[in-house]
Amino acid sequence: MPPSVVDAAELAPVTLAELEAARARIRGTIRETPLLPLRHQGREIFLKLENLQPINAFKIRGAANAVLLLAPEERARGVWTVSAGNAGQGVAYAARAAGIPCTVVTIETAPETKVKRMRDLGATLVKAPFDACWEAMERRSFPGVEGTFVHPFDDRRFIAGNGSVAMEIFEQLPEVRTIVAAVGGGGLITGIGSAARALRPDVRVLGAEPETAAPLAQSLAAGSAQAFERWQATFVDGAGGKSIFPNMWERLRPVVDGSIVVTLAEVRAAMRVVAETLRVICEGAGALPVAAALGGYAGDGPVVAVVSGGNIDLAKFCELIADA
Predict the structure, then answer these.
(1) Which of 204, 227, 242, 257 is deepest in the core (most CB within 10 A)?
(2) Is 92 helix (H, G, I), strand (E, B) or coil?
């Protein structure tokens, strides 16, 4: 399916003014999350714990900024989004705070923990197969769903909100050399990269993807947006898309320095290390950057791994770390 056409101005780099305005706008909605050292095998690694947000995921940052910037007529129509769970929670949380109805087209294999949380936040759920959800994000429409669409990553308002993660990191750890973040659609790493280019161009920004879904690494190697033909569904449900959207490729290229591909075994091991060391729960996507840092793939420290979320069924979490 052809991607939706977006105005060139929408694809221009997010400015420092936009980043600063977004940070101020969402301050009353989000938490400034802690940055904690992960002491393991002598590596200089710090974890940015976005799993401690009100929805236990970073998506509340972009969602809050996007919803707060809606025009009155857009709010009147209600909002909808597409999500495996975390973006849906973010948009539902922001919509409930604004008194706006919210619908989430969610992947039918989404973990029950995320499904329940979206319902508890007042969202109306429409379940669909992964391919139908991916197509809905490309087309920005879904049969039978009405309202104002809030894209979960391909939206500069969402990206600007996400950039506040990096702004906090620069204040908490001025000596940071590298920031690693999971890549799904690319909204988080684009926000982080935009802030880094504006404020700290000396800081490297790297993606982290699972071996079963690594379209950014493939796209960077090819020099163009690529589909990942060997895609597989795994417990890393919050990251690892089937492709890089052409729009997101244009956004990503100027601000991202590379992407690290890690194995599922490395992700499970990272989940266990974080649980044993800090008593913190990471979901699969949240552990991707940790796995990259622990493996030494992100280079010398200080390295900040963004733990993007912690929404995982506890029984599944226990099963995964037991096998690590």
Answers:
(1) 204
(2) helix
Q: How many residues does the chain have?
A: 324
CA distances from 114 to 50, 66, 150, 318 (A): 16, 21, 18, 17
Contact 85, 237 (CB under 8 A): yes
Residue 92 structural domain: 61-153
For residues 95 and 111, membership in a common domain is answered with yes
The residue type of 208 is A
Six-digit token string for 71: 């025009």
CATH code where residue 76 lies: 3.40.50.1100
Nearest to 271 by CA among 244, 234, 232: 234
> Residue with structure tokens 């990269």?
193
Tell whether 1 is covered by a domain: no
Q: What per-residue confidence (pLDDT) applies to 2? A: 40
Q: Decide if pLDDT at 202 tops 50.
A: yes
C-alpha–C-alpha distance, residues 180 and 174, integer Å: 16
pLDDT of 5 > 60? The answer is: no
**The pair of three-digit structure tokens given for residue 320, joined into one six-digit string:** 């995964």
The number of domains in the chain is 2
